[in-house]
Design brief:
6 helices; 4-stranded antiparallel β-sheet; 135 residues; 2 domains
């Protein structure tokens, strides 16, 4: 097995050859030699120690799976958003033109959230569409 000390002495050609051997795919073309060395050194050490710990692998898998579920769902005309703020329930209707709140049409939820709170908010977060406020 290759050592970290050997990786430090390798030229780009040998680094690419080691990458191909370890990952069975070519490295990204834009990756600099120092980055190639760091990644290869980490991989050699991880494999030498038996790989990443199982609990860390599980955390990585969970984090990778959560990315898709955190996206803001597509809002369809006819939908309705409710949010209580300082004892007042705010109702926003989704329309073809944008969002209807207090008999006015708004282009963004963030503008409505800012109007309600007086502070800068992400509209989807304020209305709880991506795991944000109110939870």
């Amino acid at each position: 097995m290759t050592t970290v000390a050997e990786i430090e002495e390798m030229d780009r050609g040998r680094l690419v050859a080691l990458w191909l051997d370890l990952f069975r795919a070519p490295p990204p073309k834009s990756l600099s030699r120092p980055f190639l060395r760091r990644i290869l050194a980490f991989e050699v050490q991880a494999r030498g120690m038996g790989g990443l710990p199982k609990d860390f692998q599980a955390k990585l898998a969970r984090a990778a799976g959560e990315g898709a579920s955190k996206r803001t769902p597509a809002l369809q005309p006819g939908g309705r958003l409710l949010r209580e703020w300082n004892g007042v329930t705010h109702v926003v209707d989704v329309t073809e033109q944008g969002f209807r709140w207090r008999d006015q049409t708004w282009r963004s939820l963030s503008a409505i959230a800012r109007e309600i709170t007086g502070a800068h908010w992400s509209g989807p977060r304020f209305f709880g569409l991506n795991g944000g406020a109110g939870r």
